């Protein structure tokens, strides 16, 4: 089932999400719905707060990035078929020199900006079967994970921009929260006037 993606301005996107337990209701269906929602919007990651749930869970599938011809063969291989569910994750280490990459977000359509992040991360998480993992990722995989991880921490990529950049996109962000934007996937806008 394709769920509406919560737009910029909704308070759920600014809340620090809470851990879930193994008996979380209908978790399998939620994971399936989130993947379906993400694919429908041509995303490579989706966090639970983006569908209105303040829980510590996100999923990624970096396969679409594998077609990028500017990447090395090795990078393309690491992205191809990288599909994971992260439950109650905790980034324990971020290493290396910050690098910029042009990021976008399904909750903030049509806004893309360069964001600086560390190239290597180590993360502890549970998968959809509540099996524990500790893994180290780098490059674009690490970046997608960091972007989604920020969502469960109540942080958006726009929060990482300079104050000048923030001022320049303020009007666009306001229009997104009011629903004054064309998107080809379902969205829920916090400031859209309720139709009478």
Which terms would index this structure?
4 helices; two-stranded parallel sheet; 29% strand; alpha+beta; five-stranded antiparallel beta sheet; 196 residues
Compact overview of the structure:
The protein is of the alpha+beta class.
Helix content: 25-40%
Strand tally, please?
Answer: 9
> How many helices?
4
Order of helices and strands: EHEEHEEEEEHHE
Strand-residue fraction? 25-35%
Structural class: alpha+beta
Global morphology: globular
Q: Which residues sit in consecutive blocks of at least 5 with pLDDT less than 50?
A: none
Describe the secondary-structure layout.
Elements lengths: L4 E2 L20 H14 L4 E3 L9 E5 L11 H7 L3 E13 L3 E7 L2 E10 L2 E7 L5 E7 H14 L10 H15 L9 E2 L8
Parallel strand pairs: 1-9
Antiparallel strand pairs: 2-3, 3-4, 4-7, 5-6, 7-8
Give an overview in words.
The longest helix has 15 residues, at 163-177. The protein contains four helices and nine strands. It has 196 residues and is of the alpha+beta class. The two termini are 27 Å apart. The mean pLDDT is 95.
